[in-house]
Amino acid sequence: MLIIGLTGGIGVGKTTVCSLLANRGAHVIDVDELGRQIIRPGGIAVDTLKAHFGDSVGDNQGGIDRPALASIVFEDEEQLAALNAISHPFINELLDERVEESSKDSIIIFDMAVLVESSLGYGNRNPYEIVVTVEAPMKIRIERLEQRGLSAQDANSRIESQASDEDRRAVSQFIITNGGDIDELEVAVDELWVALQKLYLEKNS
């Protein structure tokens, strides 16, 4: 198999690119969804998070109250680092399980927002080998986020809290620009898919 880490800032259309790759035959694993899964009732990180942050972060169903946890780690670098140190190994554990359940003859995409900022998808048994970054012009990103209900100020704050485009480009082998219409994006994804298939064949020749 060939494992790809696909990343991009909020509002760039990363999920759309992953969907188009899935249509072409890629197996996409949503890393953000795994992060939500570990803190649901019965999730593998719930007890450890409560032990560290206190019972106040628990909800009334046996999971973690995300807003309560966010209020603790927001603008507190030490607490955020503690959250990542607890949660990321659990997420990587689930990532390995998903990879090992998938077909060995496949191109696997890790759909992950925080590739640059973390060891997610890389500190595990089945790390990504290639990085793809999705980008979009700032104006378009703000417009997309406003359509989701965010104010322009909140949208800018979210964007600024993430890694920069320059940081992502520095670790990327491929860049997809998603600033036009869907037809242009389809062409870009087609070109990417051809390149990934070539790398997959080279790896397995």
Concise synopsis of the structure shown:
52% of the residues lie in helices and 12% in strands. It has 205 residues and is an alpha/beta fold.
CATH superfamily: P-loop containing nucleotide triphosphate hydrolases
Give the H and E element order.
Answer: EHEHHHHEEHHHEH
What sort of overall outline do the alpha carbons produce when their principal axes are compared? globular
Strand order, sheet with most strands: 2-3-1-4-5
C-alpha end-to-end distance: 12 Å
Tally the structural domains.
1
CATH topology: Rossmann fold
Strand content: 5-15%
Any idea what the CATH architecture is?
Answer: 3-Layer(aba) Sandwich
What does the radius of gyration come to? 18 Å
Notes on the protein architecture:
The protein has 205 residues and is α/β, with parallel strands linked by helices. It has a single domain, classed as Rossmann fold. It has 9 helices and 5 strands, in the order βαβααααββαααβα. It has helices at 14-23, 31-37, 46-53, 66-73, 77-101, 138-147, 152-161, 165-170, 182-203; strands at 2-7, 27-30, 107-111, 130-135, 174-177. The protein has a 5-stranded parallel sheet with strand order 2-3-1-4-5, with helices on both faces. The longest helix is centred in the middle third of the chain and has 25 residues, at 77-101. The protein is globular, with a radius of gyration of 18 Å.
Identify the notable features of this structure and list them briefly.
205 residues, alpha/beta, Rossmann fold, 5-stranded parallel β-sheet, 5 strands
